[in-house]
Amino acid sequence: xxxxxxxxxxxxxxxxxxxxxxxxxxxxxxxxxxxxxxxxxxxxxxxxxxxxxxxxxxxxxxxxxxxxxxxxxxxxxxxxxxxxxxxxxxxxxxxxxxxxxxxxxxxxxxxxxxxxxxxxxxxxxxxxxxxxxxxxxxxxxxxxxxxxxxxxxxxxxxxxxxxxxxxxxxxxxxxxxxxxxxxxxxxxxxxxxxxxxxxxxxxxxxxxxxxxxxxxxxxxxxxxxxxxxxxxxxxxxxxxxxxxxxxxxxxxxxxxxxxxxxxxxxxxxxxxxxxxxxxxxxxxxxxxxxxxxxxxxxxxxxxxxxxxxxxxxxxxxxxxxxxxxxxxxxxxxxxxxxxxxxxxxxxxxxxxxxxxxxxxxxxxxxxxxxxxxxxxxxxxxxxxxxxxxxxxxxxxxxxxxxxxxxxxxxxxxxxxxxxxxxxxxxxxxxxxxxxxxxxxxxxxxxxxxxxxxxxxxxxxxxxxxxxxxxxxxxxxxxxxxxxxxxxxxxxxxxxxxxxxxxxxxxxxxxxxxxxxxxxxxxxxxxxxxxxxxxxxxxxxxxxxxxxxxxxxxxxxxxxxxxxxxxxxxxxxxxxxxxxxxxxxxxxxxxxxxxxxxxxxxxxxxxxxxxxxxxxxxxxxxxxxxxxxxxxxxxxxxxxxxxxxxxxxxxxxxxxxxxxxxxxxxxxxxxxxxxxxxxxxxxxxxxxxxxxxxxxxxxx
Amino acid sequence: xxxxxxxxxxxxxxxxxxxxxxxxxxxxxxxxxxxxxxxxxxxxxxxxxxxxxxxxxxxxxxxxxxxxxxxxxxxxxxxxxxxxxxxxxxxxxxxxxxxxxxxxxxxxxxxxxxxxxxxxxxxxxxxxxxxxxxxxxxxxxxxxxxxxxxxxxxxxxxxxxxxxxxxxxxxxxxxxxxxxxxxxxxx
Lengths: 699, 187
Description:
The complex is a heterodimer. Chain A is an alpha/beta fold. Chain A is built from 21 helices and 24 strands. In chain A, β2 (43-49) and β3 (52-58) form a beta hairpin. The two termini of chain A are 59 Å apart. The chains are: A alpha/beta, B alpha+beta. Chains A and B meet through α6 of A and β6 of B.
């Protein structure tokens, strides 16, 4: 009902109160990223009177009965919306209710209320909710409001789901290695020299047939405890390297004599442990993906080790095997294991001009295409797919995108066919980005996978990505590769898909090492993509592993953030925080309840400051705030936190805010308010405030 | 050879007497040519979920290795399987039905038929004894995996199959068999 239909006056309303248009209120809030659905559009009429606001609010029919509540949350929310009206037209950002104090419910079960907001000291307001009879329904002593920026609202949508891989140092075991080793196959990467140089004994079998013959000859003698095989060198085609590794895995699982033998697959340069590291062994990356799945299907049987200097890695290799870690990289003699860590969401980037999308008529391709037209400044879309204009609903897609103002070319092109891809790209103006979304799944466990099933999945993802990498040499053009977190986690039954995606991740590193732009996005499952076909059981398994499907709007918000990132590999995922309890794939282990149980910098800030000259106190406090914030946010380290960037924008939610306040209080002995990070929204400002408070408490 | 089309993606090949005769040659001296007819069917695209199968008839006048047991036993199950499998492979070579056999010549197949085809996994289940001398059987190739040669292992083709036999008296047996072909031609 609009204001015009309501009586001009109602009991308790000052005569000179001005009606405020409700559509204007919700429109203005929506402009700032606060879109209220029908059930939460509870304001029915609003009047302003100086600093006061009067409003009528009611539940709509879809909100159900108010009987189950002392005060229905949608009705309270509508009353709080009234409190936002005074700042609505200011340009200082959007104010949101931040803290409520002195909430009292006088009468339960209301479906409609009259609201009056009255300003108090320091920008707070109080609320009085009454029934039609004028009797009190509820009162709120003070509503503390705080401004939020669009950046913060975006970050809330992301919920810190942008992850990256951090390779963390592992302490090598101290116990000596007494196991019997064997080296199997050709030493493609030259690691046996390293083993010999440290005097490590090992048998050598040039082939599986030779190993088999030795096992037959030595009837009764157990197979070697550890069998090491080098993966093929960087010149081997990806599919050959993957096939060879798959063959080894199947032989291992089929031969009961090897049931107690650990198979260690060695690569060199198949993973990048630091952003600037080149990654020459792309075929080895496929082996990593494939083996991660095999590891999850058969824990304790398979091990992956990547070495930087094979000839010098004998001692580190022995330590790596003795550690029992399933995946390790040896860098300068130190062992590192991969862990997904939360990463600060970058600021949003905008694509312009022409963008090419492979898999452009697929579910994800369509979502991204629409998003590029509506939320970016892309005026020209080239959608490649094998069937092009003949793909299902392609005409409707074309019409929809054209109606949004974009020029759209639907091109029939198999991106895995290099000549066809070259022709398709030659016909279009220089794109600002090429987004490779094409791909398919053909699931099978390691035991059931065949070379053909490997090829079927590698071809559309990897072949096409290699062609794109070779054909797109414009340093300004971003190559965005849609990968999957399945490659990092090693989803069971998806060894081929994992292999393909880890190659994409590696290719992005390779590209950046060559001075070109590229990012691989290791997506979690999209609810509207492949996730839409999942059974309840499959979904339950994914959730149990600590992940959950991404809604389209979340996925697209993460896409925008990841585009602006300066990383070769980012994992935009929805975490199922409730399931992150410890029993998760190893790569997710450091995300486990990072906000509550991770070792805290419990050292008192005061004791740290006591040993420092005054001139260094400021920097020490900033460092302390950064360390504590990184710990609460689950980031890898304080360098991931920008001292000048707002906490909300890097994913600190209300629980995180409470945790940060609690830790800072414990470390300083100060009693800090819950509004701390809102009143001092950047680490630098917060540190400055802490210093001030510490100085005051000294006096 | 006549080829019957009974659907858009289904091709059927009736018994190829000359080919059958050739396939059974190694069995002739031992008097155990049990396979009497075989219709081969290709359904769909063999590179994308397509299947090759054979629908066969058998006649065992007397066992080639033991006195009459009165029922179809596991040795005969195996011999009949081999004959079906050889025939379907040979037909796949001749008519280019399924990779990698479609890349082979028949001479290459004959050279490997006995020396290079190994059963690697054999499971047979006898649901109800089969007593008839005449009975039917079918085979389906569910997957063919081509493994390239590497330093670790020579090239290998692994064929996974299912088979079933039944007679007019309600007897039935089934099996799942994997066979490896070593030394595949590098065409």
